[in-house]
Specification:
Radius of gyration: 15 Å
Oligomer: single chain
Largest sheet: 4 strands, mixed
Helix content: 10-25%
Number of strands: 4
Number of helices: 2
Shape: flat
CATH superfamily: Gcn5-related N-acetyltransferase (GNAT)
Strand order of the largest sheet: 1-2-4-3
Number of domains: 1
Strand content: 15-25%
Order of helices and strands: EHEHEE
Structural class: alpha+beta
Amino acid sequence: MEKKVVNSKIFHVFFLGAREQYRGRKISNKLVENNLKMAAQGGFSTAIVEATGNISQYICRKYGFEDRVSLNYQTYEYKGVKVFEEIKEHESCILMEKVFGVGEARV
């Protein structure tokens, strides 16, 4: 099934993480919350993120992002080479999307 891209304002979340010594302090959650607030203030209709690890995928799902396309690190090949096969602790990179509805609370 082919999905059409609609002319709209798309907010791209690009990188999410915290240094190891700051983990467990919900910093990544706060980053997502603040990004979604900025998207709401800017009148964006959609937010997207390429979530490359288990934690960022979990956090994004928690804030209403849905999986759209997934690339498995163990099976993906580029020119016959499994370029991501050394990545063991994470399963895949996922393009995730959150579509804001009319009147929807964005966070």
